[in-house]
Write a structure and sequence with these properties.
The radius of gyration is 22 Å and the shape is globular. With about 450 residues, the chain is of the alpha+beta class. Strands 6, 7, 8, 13, 14, 16, 17 and 22 form an 8-stranded mixed β-sheet that branches. A 5-stranded antiparallel β-sheet has the order 4-3-2-1-5. It contains 13 helices and 26 strands. Bound molecules: manganese (II) ion (MN). Manganese (II) ion binds next to loops.
Amino acid sequence: MTAVNATHDPARWSWIDSANHADSDFPIQNLPLGVFHRPGEPLRGGVAIGDRIFDLAAAAQAGLFSGKTAKAASAASRPTLNPLMALGNPHASALRARLSELLRGDGPERRRVEALADRVLVRMGEARLALPAAIGGFTDFLCSSYHTTRMSLTGTPPPAFHHLPIGYNGRASSVRVSGEPVQRPNVQYRAPDGTVRFGPEPAQDFELELGFFVGRGNVLGTPIAIEDASEHIFGFCLLNDWSARELQRWEAQPLGPFLSKSFSTTISPWVVTAEALAPFRMAARPREPDAPALLPHLHCQADQSYGGLDLLLEAYLLTPRMREMGLVGDRVTCSNFRHMYWTPAQMLTHHASNGCNLRPGDLLGSGTVSGPTDDSRACLAELTSRGTEPLRLSNGETRTWLLDGDEVVFRARATREGSVAIGFGECRVRLDPAAAWPARHRVAAAE
Ligand code: MN
């Protein structure tokens, strides 16, 4: 588990003023990585600092790195962060330490870097952010007992829930970055009168989740010990696991969700490194006295003591009418990752325990991050008791499921006494209407 070090020092501040505001998601203690460009420029890696992006390719060209940090910065200067992820966390950690030195207000390098500001800093508002990685595999877990219980027809989680983190193989090709609209899918479902139909999904939902990226991978046939799991977790992002509930209800027995999830998944563009989150680690959620004992391959003391994460997660809903009224939207969910039954290390270890090879840039989702209270229900299916109790919004509107034009915004923030709070930025998506069917004239170009 990564230790707290000088890069987390709450006394450290940046010569970039906007990074020092108390409400900034991107103070010098954060330094999340992403991929960006301005129109006409190549995609490349950058680091969020206040309202600016520190351009790693430009900084490398300007000679600000050497040795291990030069290798890391060069790997991060490509159109995806996969090469940096593949180098392993020690390289990312060395890069973080160097960036912290370059950007700190009272550091010896300040004058040198500030003189290069026009070359190495890009205004976030002028940049377009892309997917941070080429995602070869996407796996979604089900790690909240509260979500699992509320969604269960029997009122209890399935038997395996307390023994292993339940997951399924998702679809990597349709993972998109915040800001790209999602289209309501056309789906097959069984209507209340029993007829089976095909058309726009009637019960479109979101799921508030935490995503995380695999750094260094493992060779096929070679599992990852739980003691080593944190070395393979590069960093975290917000993840919206869009869910078509009528289709899910119809198709998911017995193999689980297929088309009800695969049409789109949205992630936030900034990857908050595991190291940046070190001050916000906490004990794994205690297991109930009557819960089965953890099997040894999912248990290690360090993970039990520090494998949890104290991270506030929020979902906002902004309807077209709210937009017209100039409102920012209603917060419909306020939850925390501390409620999760399984840790990221347990998810990763379980995933590779059968010998499955994980690769740099693979994306794992935690499952809906729902907590015990009503305001921590992290999808509409829970918030509306599976569509039976409409959600009342502050401007008088109601929602049972999402309507076309609705926007869903996720935010996350880690705070702790004695540490500088860090945030994840936004994961923001508008729901567009379903495509007219048949769609033969709409054949999209192959990617
Ligand atoms: Mn999910």
